[in-house]
Amino acid sequence: MTDEMDRREFLKRSTVAGAIATTAGLPSAALAFPQRAAAVPGAPLAARRLDSKEFCLSEYDAITPALSFSASDPASAARWQQQARRKLIERLGGFPSSRAPLNAEVLETTDFGSWTREKIVFDTRHNLSALGYLLLPKGAARPLPAVVCFSGHGRGLADILGMADDGSPRSRGLSYAKDYALQCAEHGYATFAVEQLAFGTRRDDAARRAGIGENSCRPAACAALLFGQSMAAWRVWDAMRAIDYLETRREVDASRVATLGASGGGTTSLLTGAVDERVKVAVVSAYFNTFRDSIVSISHCPDNYVPGLLLDMEMYDLAGLVAPRRLFVESGRNDMIFPIAGSQKAIAKARSIYQAFGVPDRFGSAIHEGAHEFNGTAAFDFLKQWL
After folding, report:
1. Is the residue at 276 inside a domain?
2. Domain presence at residue 270
3. How many angstroms from the chain centroid is the CA of residue 360?
4. Domain total in the chain
5. What is the dihedral of CA 149, 158, 212, 124, to 10 degrees?
6. Angle at 283 between CA 364 and CA 90, to 5 degrees
7. Using an 8 Å Cβ cutoff, are 344 and 294 in contact?
8. From CA 260, how far away is CA 269, in angstroms rounded?
9. Over the stretch 74-118, which tens digit does the pLDDT of each residue have?
10. pLDDT-derived band of residue 36, with 50, 70 and 90 as boundaries?
11. Residue 33 lies in a domain
């Protein structure tokens, strides 16, 4: 036997012997594993606060937003608006200090009979490009009023343009979006459907490999937070650059531009209307609510979160940044992620804000019997009236 084996055997025997000596004479109960202490009647955890949602709501309830709308007349409302818009842009993370050249290019034009569809790529920043489809109805007097459309989560532009996964036309109304970009064109509007960052053609490689319905919101939106920015700001800036592009098109009346979107597209429509006064009408579907009842209380994609925003304002205060321009919101009675009670509260608040601006007729709303989906019936009536 080697010296190494002798040392190992010695240590083994010494350890066993020591254990035997230490435990000799002890009762067998003392050698068992430690036992859990008996529960104390009426004790501990029931009285503690362990629930993460309850904690978040408690934090919410402790906040008094610094810029909550409280104006009672148009003059004070306008003063509030100037301060609140600057603060919103700051909370979003700001926008580039200059506009990069658009370098727009029409990649293809397809004739669909009653309208043509152009596939367009353009730069929104010096290091970022966007893709969109411009639908131009035939037979209508030009220049045309325009609607910039944004999709929510799903397959990206395909969901709002009636496109199958391979780009060919598909049966209508198969997703919650109900092909609302096509509906806009059918109502006679020049329609610019712009792909949102991290959806569809603007996803990262990992999301593309994962499948047609996957997005890259989580890594991109979380990266934005590390940069002191937000996905919301990135998408709003893309929307603003889309309006810049429409201003270059002679077929479009740039003084009559609306934004429209459902779900995550509704987020962009509302925020773009809040910060860009070129938007004459903002249509928001399947989104308008209170942050408390939706974004704070229910699991959502990180692209919904703007750091510190609730320290300044609730979602309905954003309506005051669209006013006195036009705003229309619609909600489904059975929407499980933007609960109807929160929507009704936000609608009531927005209506009072428009009243303070002296233009109550410029705010419209509808509650339909559907779920988390686009409806559009009253929205298109509102667009027809105001755009």
Report:
1. yes
2. yes
3. 27
4. 1
5. -40
6. 110
7. no
8. 5
9. 999 999 999 999 999 999 999 999 999 999 999 999 999 999 999
10. low
11. no
User: Quick one: which of 105, 128, 101, 129 has its CA closest to 118?
Assistant: 105
Work out the end-to-end distance of the chain between its first and last CA atoms, rounded to an integer number of angstroms. 97
- Tokens (6 digits) for 113: 């009979």
Q: State residue 34's pLDDT score.
A: 54
pLDDT in tens, 192-202: 999 999 999 99
Average pLDDT, the chain: 91
d(CA 68, CA 137): 42
Whichever domain contains 207, its CATH number is: 3.40.50.1820
Q: What is the pLDDT of residue 24?
A: 45
In a domain, 214, yes or no: yes
Q: Are 173 and 370 spatial neighbours (Cβ–Cβ below 8 Å)?
A: no
Phi and psi torsions of 136, nearest 5°: -120, 110
- pLDDT, residue 5, reads 42
Amino acid at 35: Q
Name residue 368's amino acid.
H
CA dihedral 201, 204, 210, 214 (to 10 degrees): -60
31 vs 223, which has greater pLDDT?
223
Residues 279 and 259: beta-carbon distance below 8 Å = yes
- Domain containing 312: what range? 65-386
Q: Tokens in use for 196?
A: 């949102």
> Given its phi and psi angles, is residue 114 left (phi above 0), alpha (psi -120 to 50 degrees) or beta?
alpha
